[in-house]
Amino acid sequence: MKRNPDLIFDIGMHIGEDTEFYLKKGFRVVAVEANPTLCREAKERFSEAIASGQLRIVEGCISDKTGQVEFFINNKVSEWSSFLEHLGSREVGSVKTLLPAISIADMFEEFGMPYYLKIDIEGADFIPIQGLANSPVRPVYVSFEAANVEPAAMLFNLGYKRFALARQRRVPETKLPNPQKEGIFVEHSFPLGSSGAFGAEINATWGSLEDCVREHVICKYLYRNIPGQQDDWADIHAYNAEEAKLFAATKA
């Protein structure tokens, strides 16, 4: 399977804040989105990148099944939409629709292995990570929304030994380094709700899996449910040093 040092998978494109950033950094992007309305809007917004071949949008729901899957589009908060009804229908209910089921293995086969795999699919972040288990080639970096640390343990067993927990309310404070450490240098303001910087440029400290678990506990129990303060949440980033060497050799 081909390693692609210039490719990022945006699994859970949503309204495209992350895809926009990755494109600005000079990467090719394959973006997956389940919500048909958001796909239509993204096709208009990124029409030039699609026409040039820098962006591919894959419409459907990442799944470990084949055929079609049920997807629940929340009636109020689009990022709550999920293939899990209890998540997609939170607070105000949802609209159920049938969508194509997309296998992460099929995506790797079609597009090759990305340098960075960003995952944010409500309640299903573990599915693409499980898909890595059967692949002989893996991304250098993987990130996912830290609802829990189980996916981090899965990644550890797949060769990812360095982890960082990025608090998401700090994302708008991110200042990108110049000279750059990933892609090309760009001026960029990160909106709240975007995943933020990636790889060597993230606004967080790299450490061991144990460090990450400790930080996750602190974030989950000390930065949530504080009177007068909005809840914080986090993404976990993972780094595979062996794959970094192999991707570097491919790039050279």
Write up what this structure looks like.
With 252 residues, this protein is α/β, with parallel strands linked by helices. It has a single domain, classed as 3-Layer(aba) Sandwich (Rossmann fold), CATH 3.40.50.150. Helices cover 30% and strands 25% of the residues. A 7-stranded mixed beta sheet has the order 3-2-1-7-8-10-9, sandwiched between helices. The protein has a 3-stranded mixed beta sheet with strand order 4-6-5. The longest helix has 14 residues.
Provide the fold topology.
Blueprint: E1 3-11, H1 17-24, E2 28-33, H2 36-45, H3 47-52, E3 55-59, E4 61-62, E5 68-74, H4 85-88, E6 94-102, H5 104-111, E7 113-119, H6 126-132, E8 141-145, H7 150-157, E9 162-167, H8 209-222, E10 234-239, H9 241-251
Parallel strand pairs: 1-2, 1-7, 2-3, 4-6, 7-8
Antiparallel strand pairs: 5-6, 8-10, 9-10
Q: How large a portion of the residues is in β-strands, by DSSP E?
A: 15-25%
Tally of extended strands? Answer: 10
Coarse shape: globular
Distance between the termini: 17 Å
Tally of DSSP helical segments: 9
Uncertain segments of ≥5 residues (pLDDT<50)? none
Characterize the biggest β-sheet: 7 strands, mixed
The helix content, as a percent range, equals 25-40%
Listing every helix as H and every strand as E from the N terminus to the C terminus, the arrangement reads EHEHHEEEHEHEHEHEHEH
CATH architecture classification name: 3-Layer(aba) Sandwich
Instruction: Average the pLDDT over all residues and give the rounded result.
Output: 92
